[in-house]
Every structure is written in structure tokens, then in C-alpha cells.
Structure prediction request, 906 residues.
Amino acid sequence: MNKNSVPKTDDVLAKPYAYSPEKVLASLGTSQKGLKELEAEARLSKYGPNRLPQKKDLHPFLKFLKHFNNILIYVLLVAAVITALLDHWVDTWIILAVVIINSAIGFLQEGKAEKALEAVKKMLSMYAHVKRDGAYHEVAGEVLVPGDIIKLKSGDKVPADVRLLDVKSLRVNEASLTGESEEVEKNTEALDENTPLGDRFSMAYSGTIVSSGQGTGVVCATGSSTELGKINTMLSEVKTITTPLLKQIAKFGRQLTAIILAFGVVTFLVGYFIADYQLDEIFLAVVGLAVAAIPEGLPAIITIILAIGVQRMASRNAIIRLLPGVETLGSVSVICSDKTGTLTKGEMTAKKILTRNTALEVSGGGYAPEGEFLLDGKKTDPLEDKNVELLLRACMLCNDARLKKDKEEGWSIEGAPTEGALITLATKASLKTDPSFKRVDTLPFESEHKFMATLNEAGEGSKSRIIFLKGAPERVLSRCQYQGLGEGKSEEIDREWWDTNSSNVASEGLRLLAIAFKEVGNDQSEIDFAETADGFTLLGMVGLIDPPREEVIASVQECREAGVRVKMITGDHALTARAIASKIGIGDGKTVMSGPELDETDDNDLPDIAERVDVFARVSPEHKLRLVQALQKKGRVTAMTGDGVNDAPALKRADIGIAMGIKGTEASKEAAVMVLADDNFSSITNAVEEGRTVYDNLRKSLLFILPTNGGQGLIIITAILLGIVLPITPAQILWVNMVTAVTLALALAFEPMEKDVMKRKPRNPKDPLLSKSMLLRITYVSVLLNILSLSMFTFFSRGYSYEYASTMAVNTLIAGEVFYLFNSRFLKASVINFKGIIATKYVWGTVLAIVLFQALFTYLPLFQTWFGTEGIAAVHWLPMIGAGLILFFLVELEKFFVRIVTAEKK
Ligand code: ATP
Prediction:
């Protein structure tokens, strides 16, 4: 390319990496100051929102058809063919109608579930730091337009395709775009036009993740014009509706089908060769058996229960990104939580200033810069002490936060709370901002190295520059040779004194930041790690309080009762961590393990230690990963929180990775299964509670539905074995299945949580879906339904028509189920009490619906022809209700014995 020729705007925008930043800015009609707000609005309507094109949805009809793709449905379709061949067309039509109705229900419920997930997905929208009208603001990623200047920092997901203008150790993980997991170091140089995507170092592409460093850039492409938009892959967001449990259920369905078919063959052989049935009769009976035993409504119900769980969790601030998380949450046995902002309020206030010569107390709370400085209880002006003044100056300059005042909401900060507290502190002291201390360069804070440094000009007329350093005391101390004294003098550092005094402050639960400085030459314009290694003068330390969240204390207690161990994993000082942990009720108040100690621990010894110790301090992200692995070795289902980009591996590895919605980086959110909308530990406890409830409700639905199928199957088998006419016809059986699946069983999906849900031990994830006691209950109720319904049929067979007797048999079955629905509301606890009987509006709603359905089934002439029923005398409803009551009490009796047996086992 000829350097002097003026490139066309379109050429520049097609290949921004090949042009200098100035040319790109010029052709986008923008500058380093950013766009004007009005111009940005105009561009937004021209280019459209910065959104990726939605994945094309399957056509609704195909979605509907998908619900036929199920082995249970295949069996029903075969049954339809057999009945047609036997000329039993009514049965054929009914079977087909059931299949269609079932798919329609599945389709509608799936739609609802998808909508619920969609709504949850919206809660995870992305933000960007954009410069408009000369200042940076946080805006939704969707409103970015070409020409916007944006800031990128470690942990961010790049929100659009960006030509980089300025970088500082910027490294980006482009795996989502190029598949290459190695991080790429970025720079701002113009490249050859033919540079392949993976080597375009002067660009940061939408959807990739900043793994370290920072930079600014100009947006060149948004939405579907981005490279990501072009390849049209949706980023990992809320995934499709399938979970290990659904897979387990699908497997269960296949096994059940095999069993049903085996039973069918045996029944056929016995009926034909031993019981002397006619061929078409026995065929019909076997078809009846198949349709009786198949729980066709089950998959739809399970999907809806999971979706309701996701919705309930979202309403309690726990946003599930990956559906399997809903189930796993129910079996979590350890929660490893960050401290700052999750267990604590995350609102820092500086309370103490400690220098070698003086110790000041600071009054006031929150971010309002109102309060006094006290020396031995007496008000003092901190700026009179040159050392304190420089310390406060450092607090203000070595800081990226901003203090804001809003008319309605009062004082608040933008940026990290730790830094906000320091700005507030300096403002309280009435320290004025001084432009002659202009910042020249920054070494940003990362939790790995636990400090931050800035290079600043050193004030009016100064011949040198100054590096300010602030960070964790031990990190800063190791870089200091001197300590500051009152009159701006300094002397050799007294480490022992600092160790003792800082420990005293930390044991009060205060977070400590040490502040130091070093003078450098006027020609220095950059700082790097080597520069911060030594030669600093320690100015002093600032102690910040961050009180525990009140509700967390109760949540930790709740976890303890629920058999879930809570561990604090913090980057903070060991003594600070211990003080806060014991206020919250985590750990034994004594044992704390620190990051350096973890480094010295062998991987083989770690599992035991990880299990025993509850407070880990001065921990880095890689320690988190090791701890998760160690706990998993011990068989613990581990939840782990995280917010930084480097927490991602630990979050991915944990059974439930939990990211912070407010302070978390995009990288951590992408790696997590769950995102906390309010960053609050209590929301994790709530999610565990909901997870357990979801599992309970799944089990309740299974416990409820399966005996319906079991009971009906048994009725047919018994009839064949006894050589009597079938008490209920295939058409009637299908009616029962449909009615129970769409009404009664669904009521259980809305069951509120049981009283003792957080008093039980976590579920062992290896436990089978149906425990032995559940199988026992299913068999027991199946047998009871069979006996009751068959007895009713036999009784009414004498003196009444076949239609009358079978109508009685079907209605008895349904009555039994209505009562059994009440039993099923509590797995083991008795329902013979106010709460049990009053139930939920869903339960009573479905009971009402079912009475209506059965009235139609019994008395509507059209239904009488279809289903072969007959209107029954009003007084004959009584024996049916009586049968239901008998079943109800017998099941409660069984629960009573189960309770005694389990209590004995304990
Ligand atoms: P937790 O892990 O409990 O959430 P955290 O994430 O706040 O705590 P880090 O951010 O890793 O922990 O902070 C560890 C230490 O680094 C703090 O104790 C403090 O001394 C220091 N530190 C924190 N923020 C800053 C900052 N902005 N600048 C300099 N040092 C900091």
C-alpha cells in the first residue's frame, strides 16, 4: 500500500488492523474523546443495536413433531395400528388423539419453559465502558456504535470488534472465535492487509475475553457485522433444555418400555394358550396393558418442573445459566465463598490510619466524605502531618475509583469499593485534587500480585516523578526499605514494629492496605514489575471495615443444619479473614490456612486439609482450583464462587460454579453455572433450597404418576390371569392417563418447599432416581389401586351392565388418585393436618377440574359412545369416595411406618 494515498473509508473499515489508529479514527469520524451522545444515538438508528443475530428457531410444527420422537409414543403408535387392524376404530382414534394431545401439551409446556429461560437470559446482559462527550460511562453493550471509544480491562468480554488505540500488557483469549486457547498479546501496530484473523494483534474481537492488562480501542463493527456475527455462532448462554436427569428419565423410559413389552408377550402367551382368550381379544388386552403402563405425560412434566425451578431461583436472585445446575444444587455439600461483597456488604469505609508516628481514627460511614480524624480521641487535621498528607495523596492518586453525588441517592462510588473508601478518606481530609500530580502510567491491581502502582508527576516544579504503591501489607512491605516520618523525613524500616501493629489492626477484622512511594527520574514514562521490586518508603497503612451482611449469618446457620459446609476463600489477610469468619459463624474461630501454606501442601494431603479447614486467606485463583479438586476427591459436591477472570478454571471445575452478577467479570460469568444477581451469599442458600425443592417435586411427580400406570397395568394382568373380561378398556385407560398427567401431576410441580427441606442432609448424587422406599410406595399404591378398582368392578358386574361396572372401575381409580395426590404432597411427612389438607390452589384447582372431566366422561352422551361409559346413580359416587379415603389412610399408614423405620435407623 502506498503510504501517502488516502484510503477510502470502506477499505479502512473492512480491514482496520491494516491502518494506523489515526486513520481508523478519522474514517470513523471520531476522536480519542469519543462520540457525542447525539451522534451516537443517530448512529444507533443507522447501524442498529449491537446484538448478535438470534439463532433461527425450529419451525413450530417441527418442534411439535419432535415430541413424537419418543419410544413410549412409538409403542402407542404401534398399538393404534394393531387396534385398526382389529377393526376397533374407536380405540385407534382415541390412541391417536392421546398421542397428539400429549405432544401438544409437551409443545406448549416446552414453549413456556423456553420463555422462562429466555427471560432469565435477559438478566445476563453485558456492559461496556464507553467514552462519550469526553467522559467514560457504563452502558449496555447493545448501544455501542461504530466510532465509540471503549475501555477494556482484564475479565471483560470484548463487546464489539475494536481497533486498539492504546494497550497495556493486553492479552486476549480468542478461543471463542479462533478455537485457539493460547492467549494473544495485543499491540496497536498496523498490520499487513492479508494477516489472518488469529494474528491481527491490533484488534480485539467481539466475544473474546480479556485475560489480563487493559487497553482502549475504537469500535469498528457491531452486531452481525462483527467477525463473530459473521460466523453466526451464538455464544454459550442458557443452554438447551436437557439435563442429566432428563437423560436418566429417557433411559428409564426405555427400560420401562422393554419391561412393558416383556410383560405384554408373557400376558399374550398366558392369555392365548392358558386362559383361552380369542386372538383379537387378547391382542386388545395386550394393547390395553401397553397403553396402561406407559407414563406418556412424564417427560413434559419433568421439563416444566425444571423450568419452574429456574424461574423460582431467578426470582430469588440466583440466575441459572445451565439447566443441569438446578438438579446439582440440590446435592451441594460444600459451598466455598469469597468474602468481600458476598459474605460481607462490600461497602468499605476507612476507619484507621497507621503511620510510624501516629495512629488516627476516622469517623463516619459509607461513601459520604463526612467525618473527623481523631488522635487519642481528639479532633485533628490530618494534613498537618506531611507523612499523612502524602499518604492521603497516594490514596487519591493510586486509585481508579470515582466519588459521585446524586441528588436523590446521595454519595456513591464508581469502581472498586476498596478504592472508593480511599477516595472518600482523602476527601474527608479536604485534600484537593492537584493537576500537577498528573498520572503518567499505571500497573493495575490484579488479585495475583495484590497491589497497584501508578507513576505520577510529583507536583508543581518538581524535577522528579513519583511511583505510588498500594496493596496488601506483606506485598508492599517486602518492597520497602524505608519508612516515612512526620516531617516528610524517612528512616530505615522497622519491619517488626509494622508486623505487630498491622496484625493488631487485622485481628479486629479490618482490611489493611499499605501505602508506599518511591521517587524516580523525570524521564521515566512507564512502570513495570521490575520497577516496583524495591526501594520504596512506607508511608503507612489504612484499615477499612467491611461489615458482614446481616442475613448471611442466618444463611450460614441454615447451611449448617442442611449438612452443607461453608468455607471462606478470601484474598484478604489471615487475621482479617478469621475475625470476619467468626463473626459470621464460619470455622472454629482459630484455624486459618493461608495461600503460601497451601503452596507448601502436597496434593495428596490437601483433600483432608481442605475438608477440615474452613477459612482460607491470601488465596489466589489457582489455589481455588486446587481446593475444588481436593474437595471433589473427598466426594463433595462443591459450589465455588468467583469474580475475576482467573477464577474461571475453578468455576468451570466446580460442580456449581457461581459468578457475581454485579462485580463479576464477564469471563467468570461465562464459566459459571449460576450467576448471583445481588452478589449475596444468602442467594446461594436460597438456590440450594430451591434445588432441593425441585428434586422433591420431581420425585413427588414420579411417585404420583407411576402407580397410576402400575395400577392400571395390574388390573389388566389380573383380569387376564383370572380369565375375566377386562374391567377397563384401552380407550378408558388412555383417558385416565391423560387426565392425571395434565391435571393432577402438574399440581405437584407447583408444590412449595417442605418444612424440613433445609434440615436434611444433602442428597447423594449417586443415589438412583427411584430409591428403594419409593419403589416400595409405587408398588404398594399400584396394588391398592388395582384391588380397589377391581373389587368395585366385580361388585357392580352383578346386576349392572358391563359399561356401568367399568365406569365405576375407572371412576374409582380416579377417586383413588385424587386422594393419593394429597398423600403425595409430602414425601414422608403426614398430610393429616391443616397444612396438608388446605393444600395449594393448584391442588384444589386440579381436583375441581378432574371432577368436571369425570362428570363429562360419565354423563356426556358423546363421551359415553367413545369411551363405552354409562351414567351412574348419584349415590354410587359414595363408594368411590370411600375407596379413595381407604387408599388415603392406607398410604398415610405406610408413611407412618416408614417414618418409624427411618427414625430407628438414625
Ligand atoms: P475476596 O477474595 O474475599 O472476595 P477480594 O477479592 O477483595 O476478597 P482481593 O481482591 O484478591 O480479595 O484482594 C486481596 C488483597 O489485595 C486485599 O486484602 C488488599 O490488601 C489488596 N487489595 C484489594 N484491592 C486492592 C486495590 N484496588 N489496590 C491495591 N490493593 C488492593
